[in-house]
Amino acid sequence: MAQQRGINMMDTLMFIVLGTLGATTPLLFAALGELVAERSGVLNLSIEGMMATGAAVGFAVTTLSHSHGLGFLAGALAAAALSLAFAMLVLVCLANQVAAGLAIGLLGLGVSALVGKPFEGNTVAPLSKLNILGLAHVPTIGPILFGQDILVYTGVALLAILAWMFKRTKLGLIIRAVGEAPTAARDIGYPVIGIRFGCVAFGGLLAGTGGAYLSTAYTALWTEGLVAGRGWIAVALVVFGSWIPLRIAIGAYVFAAISLLELSIQGLGLYIPSQFLSALPYIVTIVVLAVISRDTTYLRLNRPVALGKVFRYDG
Amino acid sequence: MTKTRSLLTIAAALAVAMFATGSASAQKAKIGVIYPSPIGEVGWAHELDVGRQAIADKLGDKVEFIKAENIPEGPDAQRIMNQMASENPKLIILGSFGYMNDGMRLAAKRPEIDFIHASGYKTTQNFGWFLARNYESSYAAGIAAGYVTKTKILGVVAAYPIPEVLAMINGLTLGAQKVSPDVTVKVVWLNSWFDPSKSQEAARSLVSQKADVLYSLYQDTPEVVSLAEQLGVYVISTSSDMSKYAPKWYLAGPHVDWSKFFVASAEAAIAGTFKGEGYWGGMKDGCVSVVAISHDLKPDQRKVVDDAIAAITSGSFHPMTGPITSQDGELKLKPGEVMADASLLGINWLVKGVETRIPK
Q1: Which of B154, B199, B208 to mutate to test the interface with A (most CBs of A within 10 A)?
Q2: In a domain, B1, yes or no
Q3: Which residues in chain A touch residue B223, judged by CB atoms under 8 angstroms apart?
């Protein structure tokens, strides 16, 4: 019995480590997209709706074209189109960002239901797993490091690129300047509105990709409500990760891992109330991110000062 | 002139015909249906709609429907119900447990409209409930699971520990133990009615813990079924036949059919003879059955499953017949004792062999 439990523990650990990368991917894409938008000073609360639209459109196109690549492209573009509508409202019409974000988010949920209606409850073949260097079958580390699907690696690469961009490149500094002091950025000649448009659209592309990943790779199914709140978690991760890519990623991994741990603990027959377990991912993620972000000066330095504020070009 | 006269004659004849067949046909009887989720190709809402379609087939153009799908429980449902009531339907079918309080309130205000309510327990003169004896089909599917499992571990993905769900897990476990006494059952509670990605994660975690038969319990969409096909483990689903999502690994489909009850309720509501009662339909009522049983069962094994179904249908056997011991080792039913409907409706314990506790 003890031995059997030992085997179970090992398998459970393997399940969590293996599953975490996949479970994190949609969150990571959406959160990194939101990070770019927020760094430029725009708070976009429509992530949930954009993910849903990306998921529905991505699923529809994958089903019809039998191509995951086209599905991801279509999902990303559909969500980007929504984000441009949002950008029009807040950057050109100078609408309140919170209200406009919520409205576009609801619109996105509606669009997803409409587009997805003929596909309700359908499934597609999931995005295939890679076998990098033929090492995917090496016991234990093979499937974890070399046998994931391409979006998992893309997500990690994106994280590295964005972290480097914000820290070391001129583009990163310009985006930060636009989010910190838009009037100053304007005065030295940067097209603040244009840069913000670009950042919001980039955020839309990533949210749509994250949504399409859920519907065509992770769950490989479309049904209304598939995103189930992950967009909101992405928004929260950006804030709790204090606008730093690596922290956001840590938050996303912790959240995904604890969510899987919760399910495993139940199956192991350990008696912890499952309502408590269901709350655990949120609690642990908040605690972890609060601990790594405990330096409040550092936190204030990273928070885009102009976040959520209306900016008038001639103001 | 003759033309006018003949038109008048036709009009008069029509009027007489209408009068003769009663005022009901002057205006079609309306029936409202509220679905908690979108009507997909399979699942709970789909089966509700199959029941609605049966009314349409039986009563033809005597009825018309007001449908509202994907209505969240709460203020939205109340608004939709009131709107439906304003069209003076004869019957409103409330497709989810959470519509109960709003439905009861409306029923009290509008005694001329009859209501039937899914999974409820309260009745008034014009408000009844309907529920399926899914534990019967779960028991039969459990026998099949007991035969095909090699690891002797079954995994259940379930939403919330409500009595109906507990009864189904008990049915599955008892059925499996009938043919394979050392079977154990692991359950993952999702604590959410709807998160397909999470139910797949739960299914994966159960398979990682050596479960080789999965029971997708009240998951409305086929995500666990299609995942089982990918992972190569057997799978049982709820409500609908989901075998097309797992052609190789689909083990059995406990199925519900509301047709008879919906037709009877609609006819009674139109005739004015409706009584608010509880309907707990089982195999003998044709409400519950097991479909798409896997061909991987050997003929003698299949016969045991079929015999159990026949015995339950004829009423000669009840799945909850003692001796039955609970998880805690308490003898709940003495040998030969059959659980009464009233206790089964409110069951709050799991049988021995289920490893996971009920969250309190």
Answers
A1: B208
A2: no
A3: 123, 219-221
For residue B353, is it within any domain?
A: no
CB contact under 8 A, A267 and B188: yes
Q: Is residue B57 part of a domain?
A: yes
> Do B206 and B61 share a structural domain?
no
- Locus of tokens 């597609």: A124
CA distance A54 to B264: 44
Measuring CA to CA, which residue among B239, B266, B265, B267 is closest to residue B253? B239
CB neighbours of A214 closer than 8 A, spacing ≥ 6? A26, A51, A55, A226, A227, A230, B197
Of B268, B285, B302, the residue at which a domain comes to its end is: B285
Q: Are residues B196 and B300 in the same domain?
A: yes
Closest to B205 (Cβ–Cβ): which among A223, A226, A263? A263
Q: Are B105 and B151 part of one and the same domain?
A: no
A226 → closest Cβ in B191, B196, B210? B196
For chain A, give every domain's residue range. Answer: 2-120+141-302
Of residues A218, A221, A278, nearest to B221 (C-beta): A221
Is the CB of residue A132 less than 8 Å from the CB of residue A2?
no
Question: Nearest C-alpha of chain B: how many angstroms from A215?
Answer: 9
Number of domains comprising chain B: 2
A219 to B205: CB separation less than 8 angstroms, yes or no? no
The answer on B204 and B84 residing in a single domain is no
Closest CA to A239 of A80, A34, A61: A34
Return the residue of B nearest to A22 by Cα. B201
Give B43's contacts in chain A (Cβ within 8 Å). 121
B194: containing domain: 134-255+289-345
Series of mean pLDDT values for 10-residue runs along chain A (315 residues):
55 87 95 97 96 97 96 97 97 94 96 92 87 80 84 95 95 95 93 96 98 94 90 92 92 92 82 79 83 77 87 78
Residue to substitute from B76, B198, B205, interface A, most A β-carbons within 10 A: B205
Looking at CATH, the fold of the domain delimited by A2-120+141-302 is given as ABC transporter involved in vitamin B12 uptake, BtuC (1.10.3470)
Which is nearest to A255 in space by CA: A274, A219, A275, A283? A283
Query: Residue B188's beta-bridge partner residues?
Result: B157
Taking an 8 Å cut-off on Cβ atoms, the answer to whether B201 and A274 are in contact is no
Could you state, in chain order, the average pLDDT of each consecutive group of 10 residues for chain B (360 residues)? 48 47 62 90 91 94 92 87 93 92 93 92 92 96 97 93 92 96 94 84 93 90 92 94 94 95 95 92 95 94 96 95 93 94 92 88
User: Any chain B CB within 8 A of the CB of A121?
Assistant: yes
- pTM of the model as a whole: 0.85
B209: nearest CB among A259, A268, A275: A268
Q: What phi and psi, each to the nearest 5 degrees, are found at residue B338?
A: -105, 135
* Nearest beta carbon to residue A273 from set B201, B223, B360: B360
